[in-house]
Amino acid sequence: MSQSKLKQVFSYQSWVHAVSGSAGSVIAMSAFYPLDTVRSRLQCEYGTDTYSRAMEEPDRRKALSTWRILMHLIEEEGFATLYRGLVPVLQSLCISNFVYFYTFHSLKALRAASVAGGPGAGQSALGDLLLGSLAGVVNVLTTTPFWVVNTRLKMKGIDQQHRLLGGAGSSSSARNGGHSSHSSNSVKYDGLLDGLQYIARTEGVRGLWAGAVPSLLLVINPAIQFMVYEALKRRLTEGRPSSSSPSAITFFSIGAIAKMIATVLTYPLQLVQTKLRHGNADKSLNLPSDIDTVQLLLIILKRQGVAGLYRGLEAKLLQTVLTAALMFMAYEKIARFVTSLLISPKSVKGLH
Q: For the chain, how big is the Rg over CA atoms in Å?
């Protein structure tokens, strides 16, 4: 790689994007974390019987609404349960988004450097989709162990709730021959580093990278998100002077639209990813411990139908759309602010 291309990879612009993306994601997740807790509980905790009855009876369907589950968790486990695992999630999110934003914008800079016509040359929706996918692969391969620990920490309250409901968790385990896989009662750690060490010691590399296959498939999610976001931003900033920037609400809106499209298209894979990371905690499915992504997708489809593949979508959309919208808004504003401190005004245009 030539020296000029290396400068594009290790440029101030890439660092600014990475730091801004990390900071924006931490701000957004902190604001909407309880919604992510509800989404995880819907995907992992509520079994086939509960969900099937909810689909058949309006009253039960209403009981599985995001607001009802929030209230239920507060009543059964206390307000603190909504923020269980927040610190390791923020740590992992900061690392993950730094890797993703740095890789994505470094690849964009390399693309621009190889095409004559300036920083904006060669940009296209298909190109952004490809670069987003490559950045996603790098991100998954480097950060999956952190998210495995996070998912299990977040589910630690399930057994407590089962005990309060009269031992439902114990009876469920008994119905499955005592098999508990890696359920929350085996979570013997409280932090990110402790969790990484414990899983590496007890489950090995396979345990640390549980759910990596659907995660690799899911790189299409942020890739679609960034493709739509970048396309909308290019359309809105076309013809504007470099000193002029769209409003915060504009960035919030296009971030929300981009994430909504990406989430709806890829949600079934996200559902499977969560179940695999948590160790197949949905005992009502009676799954083998070595099940793979395709098998789990087919089992859910067979036993719960198409609706089962979209279980928790309401909470997921509410959480991810709001989080992504706030993240992009904060990211854009932080990026421009940091740029004004570190880079000359002439370089601001290169950020877009």
A: 21
DSSP symbols for 121-179 = TT--HHHHHHHHHHHHHHHHHHHHHHHHHHHHHHTTHHHHHHHHTTSHHHHHHHHTTT-
- pLDDT 10s digits, 1-19: 556 666 666 778 889 999 9
Give CA–CA dist 134/230, Å, rounded. 16
How far apart CA 6 and CA 151 sit, in angstroms, is 36
Q: Evaluate whether 179 touches 173 at the Cβ level (below 8 Å).
A: yes
Helix residue ranges per DSSP H, the chain? 3-9, 12-44, 48-56, 58-63, 66-77, 86-113, 125-154, 157-164, 168-175, 192-202, 204-208, 212-217, 220-237, 248-278, 293-309, 313-342
Q: pTM of this prediction?
A: 0.74
Distance CA 349, CA 292 (A): 46
Q: Which CATH class is domain 1-161+188-340?
A: mainly alpha
Q: What is the Cα–Cα distance from 189 to 149, expressed in whole angstroms?
A: 9
